[in-house]
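Protein 1 of 2
SEQ + STRUCT:
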Amino acid sequence: MRFSDIPGQKETKQQLVHMVQQNRLSHALLFLSREGCGSLSLALALAQYIVCEKTSGSKEAKPKPISLFGEEEDDVQKKIEPLIDSCGECSGCKKASQLVHPDIHYSYPVIPKKAGEKPKSVDYVQQWREFMQQQPYGNTYDWLQFINAENKQGNITSEECLDIIRKMNLKSFESEYKILIMWMPEMLGKEGNKLLKLIEEPPPDTLFILVAENESLLLPTIVSRTQLIKVPAFRPIDIEASLELKEGIDMDKAVKLSVLSEGNYREALQQLQHSADDWDQLLKDWLNSILKTGPAVQVKIIDEISKIGREKQKQFIKYFTHILQQSIRIQAGTPVVSQSTGISGFAAKLSRLCELSQLEAIVSELDKAAYYVERNANAKMLFHAL
């Protein structure tokens, strides 16, 4: 993956490139962001940049110092521009993009294939490559479902830590660096203590990239040995542009999805699967049944909601929550972030009908409902109670 394949995140990309170009790359980096912000994609892009044969991360392609005299500004610019991203064409880039580069290793949560088995990431390497090709912005739930974990809890085992120590003490095969990308180090637990000495005193030209979502679940001893890179949420305009270019959807729909996703690209892609659903009309019918048309219509609409499935119910609740958030912003006198006139109009009407405390109370109840939907509550009972 190249940096140019990732929407937005311009400042973070520049920071990573400058660290490599100026030889200020720490031996251990911690990428921290919330779900769907592209931190794993950035880690993959950085690893590819480092092993690329045509960038400053390659042993054969270290940039020569630019002379202070005798060069035009255009010549200097030509020398700098090719270094801001991996080429995507050399042998190192092709192997890295296919996740088969011998000097880039991956660690991620796994489950035992058989009872009593002690699993390692390498046992699932083929599934990992397929998953990253299909869902580069997926979360741990998506990954565990991809490997048919069902209700099993994935983790990074003690055996995995020993395998990491063994691999990172080997000499590199092709590139200057040996790189380990560990996704979700929160699932290390106490086993992570086995990696402390390796992270603190790594072999020469070794790079650890930890990609996490919750710093409070990480071992403090590991956090203290890493350089923190905070990855911000995607800007709505970046998600909008990516949806238009990569998914081929029209601008109005892209604007709506980018606002509803609130900086989470995975959420935007999830909502895209349900974008044909008319949540606006369903929500208006439901609210009218509560306030005007009466219980008989309400029962009919709730029966309809109960049949659409858990994922769509979550999307429906999220849509309602977003509109209420816009209404709260209107009452608080802050700018409305939605560019969709339909959403803005609906939010404005609700802000006139409800007091601020009522809007906040409804949002609170919707959050609880989403929590129960995820835990497979009876839909009819849940939405009647709501």
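Protein 2 of 2
SEQ + STRUCT:
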Amino acid sequence: MRGRMSPSQGEHMNPKFATATPFRDLVAATTLIVISVGWTTGQAFAEGDSPVIKINAEAAQADITVQPLRGNISVLIGSGGNIGVLNGDVGKLMVDAGIAVSQPKLSATLDRIGPAPVKYLINTHWHWDHTDGNKWVRESGATIIAHENTLKHLSGTIRVDDWNFTFPPLPMAARPTSIVNTERMLDFGGEKVLIKNYGPSHTDGDLYVYFTKADILVTGDNWWNGYYPFIDTANGGSIDGAIYAANVNIAQATDNTLIVPGHGPVGDRTQLIEFRDMLVDIRDNVAKLKKEGKSLDEVVAAKPTAAFDAKWGGFVIDSPFFTQLVYRGV
């Protein structure tokens, strides 16, 4: 028997940690595949040298690791963004699908978690490292849930200059079929699963997923734990939206909540607050410099992120690149 959906008005259908994994080891595992990309502001990439190409190539070689949390919920690490999995008697619910080249390893890992098929896949947003696996998951019989703007982006050609990459439309067989524009409660696998839109934040179509019984919050890319986040300013994202989403996450979480970020280790509310405060301080620093009439190059040279770089600048998004993303939105 499938899970029972309770759509909210306006929704429609469309044709402290559970394991003993040391924190340092978990960070190393979730550094994933992109640390070697060498992605810096202003770096010129030929299309074949795009970070997307490099990340896909690394994903094909990466192992998938499983971190059990609680309430039959686990995190799969190693294929782009973190993937949440609820394993129920009648099937599985996935949050994000990773990169398509990981399919054999992801499929084998899902089978080890439990024999039941995937019934639902929730796309937290449109970015390929969270949606590239949509086709094989949907072909297995899953219903794909997403915001209407995620469906829009996946249905057309879309250029991301920051990645020097043009994404073709996903085939019809890979696109979301169930739309959540505000919120929905899904009863599945003994859980009440809240799916809710942030509003414009990291992109213009981000959803979070909250497993109410297990008290686990999955944020997608509205939280990068320990790293500067990417903000898709070309597709509805902004620094103010990112701060707003961080506050939404903080309000949703309690001191007991396990929080699964889009990238980085599973964390807690205290770490979310630290992330939010970092965003606010850098936003204010950049806004002050921009208000003084300084150009982007002058603002980057002023190093408005300097107090945070040692902690937050060691992953995909370095200080100049993050400064550029913030500058666009203030």
